[in-house]
Write the structure tokens for this entry.
Amino acid sequence: MTRPLCRAALLIVGAALALSGCGIPSTGVVEAGGPASGITATTPLYFVQDGALVAIRRAVPEAGDAAAAIEEMLQGPDVVERSRGVTTRVARTSGPGSLFPADGTVEPGATVFPSAAATEAAAEPVRATAEGDRVSVVLPRGVKAERSALAERQLICTAGRAYRMALRDTAPVTVTVTAADGARAEGTDEDCPDP
């Protein structure tokens, strides 16, 4: 490029920059309402349908939190899901959201009044701790689970897939679940059905 052409180009660029800001006053922060909102994150919760594990997406208050996902799962399938044959093998024994009576048995037509101890146990929260690609879940008293591989997979898949959301990773998560009576189950979320 020749020297006169370079000067002309610099003058044009300089003039364009000077004119582009002309008449536009500077402003501070402009308040425009609350934070952006959009699609609510959903977490896959695992239930049983036709004898197999099935993932159902639900809005969970704390996406990525294994304990919050299990608490939501303990509420069981909703009315629409139950009408489609969705069931659970794990639930609270009494209190809000109970699917089982306090002692696990009910006579047909009987009304169940949970004991004070059962109501207190139902108020205990699920606890979960996570480190790296592992999550440990401790179920409180007041949670009843079948002693079956399907019930174990329901818990492991729900906790593992919820925690994986927080990791934002595709590697399998190893989950250890400990019941109030000390029974333990361990597995990964690797073969859990996709939602």
User: Anything to note?
Assistant: The CA atoms of residues 60 and 72 lie 7 Å apart.
